[in-house]
């Protein structure tokens, strides 16, 4: 096998700076260090961490090899037009209607590569047969017909480096690329003897070698462009968007790839950071799973804060929403035991309750348990016959809920319980409100109606977000101190390749 050629992965050399340039460089270094420290002081901790294990890498390799084989076998290389300048003149040629008729290769090798913070990939023994049509002219001679091209023992060695740009988008670079072709045979069917004189299989072989690495670099540039076009902000719904840029460069060692993401939710029209910062947490990758995901309290609390500032954390409760079996209904007579003056001032009148958050609910992840603190208020109104409202009283409410959750079959399941509830009177237009007795009634209502309905939905499971051609399997959810870890394998279902698939895309 011939020595592999390095292609299109060049390093730059810079001239030695002058003395004043060195001094200026030091000043810039100090300023840069100060900026970095300022950035760190203002919180660049990731809220989401993702680890791809060796098991995951090898699975991606197998899917990539299958995809490559499918696409090579159904690819349509673009037409080629060119010329060969020779001492006796110029040959103009066109190669058209190319189609891959057969291809095979040994399973490629892919591994994590620390030296370039990326991957090392080797594809060897690639065998390709291509057929198509050709035409050529040399002076007054013109010819054309069909051709067959056979490429044997094509090998590609690639070092792919990972990084990030100024916007936190992933970046890719070809750190090194080598390609060699064992042989390339071209058969021009029914070609004239004059045209056959210009067939140089060594030139064909070397040309293929020279084209491979620039093509790979071009594809990496296209991938970067597409990722940049996607951006790092994704809208979840009309009230919520999430920022997922990288917060630091990818980390690669011999067994895994680790990514750190911002993981902040915000209103789509107002990407403002919440009034708290992410706290550091340590996620250990599990080699028995393809993926490990760490989700910190910051991420869920930023979502809670975004919903709160949007004004969506409020609810109007009417009597029609209360089960008929409930002993307490939204009627002034029903509320008489808790507000003695109410039935006298407004006998047998309909009531409504406005429940709203005073602060964004706070999530806390503790070993095995998710807790949520809620600080809210309840305003009670009488509904007049003409549909207008009269304010009665306002109660401030503090409560804590706890839940245990698990994942299975791409669903989130679990159960939530009420841990405690405190009720205080803020203001009243109807005299005394017996908050202790009302607190018992509210707790009874939550446990009798609200939580059973919610837990029934959780028991059935809430569908997790999925992708069309990829599914998470063997899901394990664990609640740690300050974060949730999710361990998972994956199944990728490749789309069937179609005839006419763009060449090597």
Q: What would a concise description of this structure say?
A:
This protein has 505 residues and is α+β, with helices and mostly antiparallel strands. The chain has helices at 19-41, 54-73, 193-196, 201-230, 297-309, 342-345, 435-460, and strands at 5-6, 48-53, 75-76, 80-86, 89-104, 109-113, 118-138, 141-164, 170-188, 233-237, 240-243, 251-252, 256-261, 264-266, 291-296, 314-317, 351-357, 362-366, 369-383, 389-408, 411-428, 462-463, 470-479, 483-492, 501-502. Keywords: Antibiotic, Antimicrobial, Disulfide bond, Glycoprotein, Immunity, Innate immunity, Secreted, Signal.
Textual characterization of the structure:
One of its GO terms (cellular component) is extracellular space. Belongs to the BPI/LBP/Plunc superfamily. BPI/LBP family. Monomer. Homodimer; disulfide-linked. The protein is α+β, with helices and mostly antiparallel strands and 505 residues long. The protein folds into 2 domains: 177 residues, Bactericidal permeability-increasing protein, domain 1 (Super Roll); 257 residues, Bactericidal permeability-increasing protein, domain 2 (Super Roll), CATH 3.15.20. 24% of the residues lie in helices and 44% in strands. The longest helix has 30 residues.
